[in-house]
Amino acid sequence: MSDFLIVGGGVIGMMTALQLADAGQKVSLVERGDCGQEASWAGGGIVSPLYPWRYAPAISQLSRWSEGAYPSLALRLLEETGIDPEYRQKGLLYLSVDDPDSALSWARQMGKPLERVSADMVRAKEHCLPPTEGALWMPTLGSVRNPRLGKALRARLSAMPSVTLHEQCEVNGFVRRGERIEGVSTAQRTLTAAHTIVCGGAWAGALLETLEVSLPVRPVKGQMLAYQTPPGLVKRVVLKDGRYVIPRADGLLLVGSTLEECGFDKATDQEALMSLRRSAEGIVPALADYPVAYHWAGLRPGSPDGVPFIGELPGWKNISVNAGHYRNGLVLAPASTHLLVDQLLGRPPLIDPAPYQMTPERLTAG
């Protein structure tokens, strides 16, 4: 029997496992597919909410802590696994922002560097952008190459003797004894633990229905595409009208993303492809000269207010949840997992856990 059993091998589940193992706990992680291959793989890797000043304080608290954690986490994983998560701190240019005063006020309150910059400054930063009247500039923003982050986390966990990974192993129910949860059942085996943690992403709500709990977490599809460009064509993240381009060191340039309510359908379509191309080529006109190299879709774990559910599951014992991060799973992962592990191990919490708990009001908000 493990000390902890984690359901879900995305970035939330794997970071939870890493922190528990670092604390000397015996951990099992069960994943329906391969670790790191759902939303954690499909996103863009910006280490900030797109427009952070438009989010609730509960999101800002988690994202601010997580942003500070990523440089050391990326370095640690590179040293331990040889896999580089490619954390890049090149800043972000916000074009055509319609609420700049709100943005600047938020930045002052949070102590974040954010400033108005001139058209000449924008041109100096990114020569491929079309003429603009100026922009907002956040120099400290970073991004991570999320597929490689997932590979590095999986490699590190695989090397830890206190961690057991069960991949291609779909959970079909929980092992109950009265109000206690003692583990999960799968087609292959029954797995038991002193405490179970549900980190199932977009599938968390459906899984918890088997416990007669209605967790308002739903799948929200996002389609993205990527161009292969010469390295350095774009050097930093650029955001305009809710769409963004994210450069990788090898010239791969990601573009995202759509927001679609269509259940668990991950199919891509031509309409989304053309919409994303228009957005990308509106931000960087030179992209019209390059073919689309990749087009894919993932499923975000949507929640009513975008604030994740973190903590014990009401009505049951020995089970906790960390799910519902919506568009910010990667952004919030270091802090949200640290906050839950603090609670599980009886440590002083990183921040006040109250906004993330599964109160009756939050559970019925959907």
Automatic annotation (TrEMBL):
Residues spanning the membrane: none
The FAD dependent oxidoreductase domain sits at 3-342
EC main group:
oxidoreductase
Tell me its EC number(s), please. 1.4.3.19
Short name of one Pfam family: DAO
Instruction: Please tell me whether the keyword Oxidoreductase is annotated for this protein.
Output: yes
Give the metabolic or biological pathway. Answer: Cofactor biosynthesis; thiamine diphosphate biosynthesis
Domain of life of the organism encoding this protein: Bacteria
Keywords attached to this Swiss-Prot or TrEMBL record, sorted alphabetically, are:
Oxidoreductase, Thiamine biosynthesis
Record-level Gene Ontology MF annotations? glycine oxidase activity
**What PANTHER family does the database record attribute to this sequence?**
GLYCINE OXIDASE, SARCOSINE DEHYDROGENASE-RELATED
Can you say what this protein is called?
Glycine oxidase ThiO
Annotated source species: Vreelandella janggokensis
Lineage from the top down? Bacteria, Pseudomonadati, Pseudomonadota, Gammaproteobacteria, Oceanospirillales
Name of the gene: thiO
